[in-house]
Design brief:
alpha/beta, Maf protein, 26% strand
Length: 190
């Protein structure tokens, strides 16, 4: 059986892929996540998932490599990982009471082939006061999360509605698309 490598060290992403019941390894892609001038948010997340997969595939050409990327888009602008409390506060203040897109891309590379998929969710954040935003940021610490929230923990409480095709993709891995891609590569999934 082909070796499968998840191009990520994220605990959440590892758990999600484990749910498929397949054996895999995980490795950091070590890719600089930069936005290129003139690139749409959708193009950015797709390109970054490809770059992550290609980086790991270059080190393991015999393997099937899975990589993902996720970002938030509001008013056509990409909101990445905030890094600081102030940036996270600005992100949430901008999104509260509004709908934004959560973009999640997956790329699979192996046997000389590459395929990608993109899931788009429309996320409507409930109105939030400045103090509610501050309380959330202190409790959940989402400074390394796209859009300044961790949907897999307390972040879900910030939303009034979420719409999209793959309900778990919002947590970082578009599992329905990933399953389809792995099946195309001949990986048996129960």
């Amino acid at each position: 059986m082909k070796k499968i490598i998840l191009a990520s060290q994220s605990v959440y992403k590892k758990r999600m892929v484990e749910n498929l019941g397949i054996h895999f390894e995980a490795e950091s892609p070590r890719v600089d996540e930069v936005v290129l001038p003139g690139e749409s948010p959708e193009e950015t997340v797709l390109r970054l998932s490809v770059e992550k997969a290609e980086a790991v595939a270059a080190r393991h050409p015999e393997a099937i490599v899975v990589a993902t990327d996720q970002a938030v888009s509001i008013d056509g602008e990409l909101l990445g990982k905030p890094g600081t409390f102030e940036a996270a506060k600005e992100h949430l203040s901008r999104m509260q009471g509004r709908t934004h897109k959560l973009l999640t891309a997956v790329t699979v590379i192996g046997d000389g082939h590459r395929e990608s998929a993109l899931e788009i969710h429309h996320m409507t954040m409930r109105p939030l006061s400045t103090s509610a935003i501050a309380r959330y940021l202190v409790k959940d610490q989402p400074l390394d999360s796209a859009g300044s929230y961790k949907i897999e923990t307390m972040g879900i409480s910030l939303f009034s509605s979420i719409s999209g095709n793959d309900p778990v993709a919002i947590m970082g891995v578009p599992m329905i698309a990933l399953t389809k891609l792995l099946l195309r590569w001949g990986i048996e999934i129960p």
